[in-house]
Amino acid sequence: MDISKLTDVKKVDLCKKYFLIGACFLPLVWIVNSFWFFSDAFCKPVNNHRRQIRKYVIGSIIGSIFWIIVLCSWEIFFQHYRSQGLVWTDFLTFVFPTGRV
Amino acid sequence: MKLWIVLILIIGGVQCDGFSDQVFKTLNIGEGNACYRTFNKTHEFGCQATKDNENGLIVRIDKHEDFKNLDSCWRSFYPSYSRKFWALVPVDLIRRDSISKLKSSECLAGIVLYNSNQTMHPDEKTTAASHDGDCPNAASDYYFQNNTEAYCERKFNSRGSITPDGLMRIDWRVQMIFINNSTDLDVIKRCHSMFNTPREDGSTGYPYCGMSFRMTNMAAGNSEICYRRGKNDAKLFQMNIDSGDAPQLCGAMHSDNIFAFPTPIPTTPFNDTHHSSKYMMVTSRMDSFGMIPEVSVGEVSVLTSIISVLAAARSMGDNIEKWKKASNVSNRNVFFSFFNGESLDYIGSGTAAYQMGKSMFPQSLREDRAHIHPVLLEELEYVLEVQQVGVAEGRKYYVHIDGDRYDQDRTPTDKIMDKIERGLRSHGFDLEKPSGSQRKVPPSSWHSFAKADSKVQAVLIAPFKEEYDYKRINSILDKNQWTSDEKEKAVQEIEAVATSILAASAEYVGLETDDVVAKVDKKLVSTLFECLITSNFWFDCDFMQKLDGGRYHKLFDSYGFNEKSTYISMETHTAFPTVLHWLTIFALGSDKETLNVKSEKSCSHLGQFQAMYTYTWQPSPYTGNFSCLKSAIVKKVMVSPAVDPSTPEEEMNTRYSTWMESVYIIENVNLYLMEDSSFEYTMLIISVISALLSMYAVSRCSEATFIVDEGEPAAEGGEPL
After folding, report:
1. Alpha-carbon distance B127 to A35, whole Å?
2. Domain boundaries, position B587
3. Residues B703/B705/B709/B713 CA torsion (nearest 10 deg)
4. Does any CB of chain B come closer than 8 Å to the CB of residue A98?
5. Cβ–Cβ of B221/A101 closer than 8 Å?
6. Residue B144 located in a structural domain
7. What's in the keyword line of the UniProt record (chain A) (predicted)?
8. Within a domain: residue B240?
9. What is the reported pTM?
10. Which of A45, B126, B138, B668 is least enclosed, having the fewest CB within 10 Å?
């Protein structure tokens, strides 16, 4: 979809939808939303519609960063303990590595 | 048309695999010939292939001085080579002063072990070559687990051990294989001498002879981790398309144990568990191990002691009526146990002690029929074990007992020790009775029963006092090169110990020891010595060939099934339990009641619904004639309760053995010529250029380039051909 052809109203609507969908534990949608509407939010002259877009984009960026921190922390935490072969980490593992703990 | 070309190229690419036999010389490495991973509850041991230890240049370490080259990574020989090496090392060079170099070397990919052809120098017999640790089975020692002794306080094997913890308890960074096939060994040596031996001027150069080998273990960590990962509920998302079950990563070491009851156990109705009898268990272990676990003959670790117990059993079998009568009067019985896995924290005896505690020994109770009365722990009064028979320095033996238990009731044990002394003296050997430090029992099967019952007494007959004199316990080198004098003395020792077993047993059941009761067949001892120790394989001698009678088949391409090995393994792919089972049936079986049975089928029918007796269609090792032998012998697979899925309440209980083996994939050894890395880069550049040229040539072609039939374009245009 080429959003440059959309009107500002439709852009706000789309950005809002993506923000709300991302709020349903879908951080990738927030990341897409952040990149997609970044130029509309911050690189073009401000108007009422773009102010709203900026609000959703900032929300999406904060949410994305939050998720990135949470997922990275979890990954570091999980991998640290997974390599010790604990019961709970094994339980959450999908494929056991061959010949390694 | 382009599709056809692609197809041809793909097929051509696949067929390139056919060149591998021109690039590599492949040597088949059977199961058990390579070092693989083993585990206990806390650690992993053994070898694992990685990208760093797969390939290497072949070098030889033929004498101790050659280890200097290992320190310098053979730089003076191969200055332009900076990668790893595979070292050919005879097993007798694995010693205390060399093992640290092999362990810590950064330039070794692996070690190829082989048996040296050189006759063992007399001094080498005194060199430490035991692959066990200073304190065999220290973690499962009764005194340690009972907190009456620190870990590894009594170092029985400190004179013989190569490393304090034992070579099997090392997590190696290198890979290891054992080559027993002289043809394969010659191929490797020839490859080395053709390409890797320095020229007369001392120089070497590419191409070199290289070797690659890969042995991949499925499991890692320790037995607790791999045991858990093998369960179906180990993962939240358990998906296995093939079977639906979790794939097996490792397995508990288990194998057959043999229990023989010369005098029948009373049959009782179900639930009747009153104490009906008392028992003395005469025992000897069946297993040993080496640096590569399966490669161990176990001559003195195992075989000499087993021969003495078999000889005693045969003598008992010859006079069974007297023994039965005495047992009936005294209500005391003697039975024989050959435990497997004893060198790995008492797998067999630990399981037997557990089963006795649960009234499951020797058989589980069944509600639908009368059963033999289970042997209970409180009924077991004595564990009489023999160890390391045949290597006494001088003519002296020792008896070991537990002082605390002995002090509770000295008289019966004193009488038994007196009989053992008389038995040994009748053959010119002395016995030193326990005193001081000898009042604690050395590593032996008794420890398993002692942990389970506070009264069971130990009587251990062995040629050592505080430390093992023999320095090759549990070792690849546990195979003596017996001189005729040594052999004669070993046979005398075996005979003397067998006599003392009989005398002690007779004392226990209340049988008068006379010349008949305690007479051991010396010829049988000599024959078994020749067959089990001197011969290259179990069935090489006439005696064993007749006993076999065509029943033994080498089913698996594994070391344990094709060579003399006394390792326990996780697959029961060893011949030794079968060999010992047949020998025990020969020793104690009788055909007096089955003389009219003339076929295998009718013999097997006799055994149906029997609680106590088994009927085996087996040939006599003297005549080769088959007969139906009645015996009360149980061949039973024992899995340690700590790793047995049927006993989840004991899971990973360190009171029992937690040893497991990884499932592994073993690949063949490939020998190949190594070129200089610049050669490889040159070839890579040439191949890239030729690929680019090919692409350029192909891209210039149109479809018409490949049309040979001139009618084809017309046909594609719709015109009839």
Report:
1. 74
2. 254-261+279-658
3. 40
4. yes
5. yes
6. no
7. Membrane, Notch signaling pathway, Transmembrane, Transmembrane helix
8. no
9. 0.88
10. A45
